[in-house]
Specification:
By secondary structure, this protein is of the alpha/beta class. The protein contains 7 helices and 7 strands, in the order H-E-H-E-H-E-E-H-E-H-H-H-E-E.
């Protein structure tokens, strides 16, 4: 409701840019309710593997149950993205959708995600970003006033949606995140702005 359904299109675009192939291994970091894991599982098939991870056990349980309801037998792991419990060069694709923003040490998390990528693998970061400048004032009004109001009316929780707006404001913009990914050792980084920069998808490669 808060995104007028656009979050589904953002995630679908991320899947297409990731371009998963049958048999590939995918790590969904901070995967929560398993939107991406579910879509990846369909694309990599039975010969592939998708790991759903999240630091929050309640969210991970929701995602795991959803996958089971869909008939998807995907392994899950409760873990911190800054200390991933996987071997080096294990995955073809690593994704994090709307999760990097909440990580304390983003540089460490990015380094860990690169570590577990095999050579030729790709990392995709889908996250709220810096909106097109002419729209900043209207976007701030929506984020800091309308969004908490909707949160209170619909979910009975204005504070969580106020935090959402504040965390978006504090998150690195497109250029800064690209530089952070480069510093983590990723290469050929591309940035795809969506909805006038409300959301950006960063894709980096490991060689």
């Amino acid at each position: 409701l808060m995104s007028a359904g656009l979050h589904r299109l953002w995630k679908k675009f991320a899947i297409e840019i990731a371009a998963p192939r049958p048999g590939e291994r995918v790590l969904d970091v901070a995967g929560g309710t398993a939107d991406l894991s579910s879509a990846f599982a369909k694309r990599v098939g039975k010969q592939g593997q998708v790991w759903l991870t999240d630091i929050n056990n309640a969210m991970l349980t929701v995602g795991r149950d959803r996958l089971l309801d869909e008939g998807v037998l995907a392994p899950t792991a409760q873990c911190d993205a800054e200390k991933l419990p996987f071997p080096d060069e294990h995955f073809d694709i690593v994704t994090v959708a709307f999760g990097l923003r909440n990580m304390t040490h983003k540089d460490q998390a990015l380094a860990e995600m690169r570590r577990v990528l095999r050579p030729g693998g790709r990392l995709l970061v889908l996250e709220f970003s810096k909106v097109w400048k002419p729209l900043e004032k209207a976007y701030d009004t929506y984020s800091f006033h309308l969004l908490p109001w909707l949160g209170q009316k619909i979910a009975g929780d204005a504070d969580s949606y106020r935090y959402l707006a504040e965390s978006i404001r504090m998150h690195p913009d497109q250029a800064t995140l690209k530089a952070m990914m480069e510093q983590a050792g990723l290469e050929r980084i591309e940035v795809f702005n969506m909805t006038a920069g409300v959301v950006a998808l960063h894709r980096g490669n490991k060689f």
